[in-house]
Description:
The protein has 100 residues and is α+β, with helices and mostly antiparallel strands. The chain has helices spanning 9-24, 50-56, 65-81; strands at residues 35-38, 44-47, 87-91, 94-98. Helix 1 packs across helix 3.
Amino acid sequence: MKILSKKNPIDIFSEASKILNEAVVHTLGPKGTNTAVVDGNGMYQIINDGKAIIEKLTSLEPDIAPALETLKQASFETNRKAGDRNYFNYCNNECFTTRC
C-alpha cells in the first residue's frame, strides 16, 4: 500500500474547503461581487457566478488537489439537485434554462 500523504485526511479536506470557500464567498447573496480569475495562460476573467469559479478552481499542492476535486464534485451535485432553481442544463449540445 502506497502512502500518498503524511497529512491527516481531515486536515487535507479542511484546507480544501477553505480554498473553495475563499474562492466563492464574495459572490454569494444579492450583494455578491465580481471575482477576477486567472487561467493557466495568465489571462484574467471577471466572474460573478460561484459555479463558474469552482469549475476553474485548481490546487497546485498535490496533497490537496484530490480533496478539492472531491469537494468540487459534491458542490456540482448539490447545485444540480438543489441549486437556486434557475440554472443551465446541457442536453444534446443544446443549452436551456429549467425551472423546477
